[in-house]
Amino acid sequence: MSLPEVNCPYDIPEPYCWDSSFEVFYANLDEEHKGLFQGVFALTDKSKDINTSLSTLQTKVVDHFTDEEAMMEKAGYANVTEHKKIHADFVAILSPLSGSDVNDKVIKYAKEWLVEHIKTTDFKYKTKL
């Protein structure tokens, strides 16, 4: 599987978990972002069923994107179309995966994508929703 390059200029937290540097200051979105971090981290837990962990992450991603996009639409956020495309591109990569596809490259991609997305793309909507 070929994954797109993520140009992430930010440090990737290890252990991989949400911290206050990722706050967008909307309580529901910050909680959902925490859940996404937990979902990606769960992919690294060899004691858990990888198919269950991946399915849970896939659901969390779609649910979060739906909530975030609805808030953008309601607020008339100017960059909603561009933001939705970025989300759709990530879902297009994540959705077809099965547990047997999850490897170090996929996990690295997901970690970097989430950090870069929040700190670059999501931070643009702070105070605008």
UniProtKB/TrEMBL annotation:
Entry similarity comment: Belongs to the hemerythrin family.
Gene3D superfamilies reported in the protein's UniProt record: Hemerythrin-like
PROSITE patterns documented for this protein: HEMERYTHRINS
Pfam name, any one: Hemerythrin
Amino acids binding Fe cation 1: H33, H64, E68, D122
Residues covered by the Hemerythrin-like domain: 26-128
Record-given protein name: Hemerythrin
PANTHER family: BACTERIOHEMERYTHRIN
InterPro entries named in the record: Haemerythrin, Haemerythrin_Fe_BS, Hemerythrin, Hemerythrin-like, Hemerythrin-like_sf, Hemerythrin_metal-bd
UniProt entry keywords in alphabetical sequence: Iron, Metal-binding
Residue positions binding Fe cation 2: E68, H83, H87, H117, D122
Source organism of the structure: Mesochaetopterus taylori
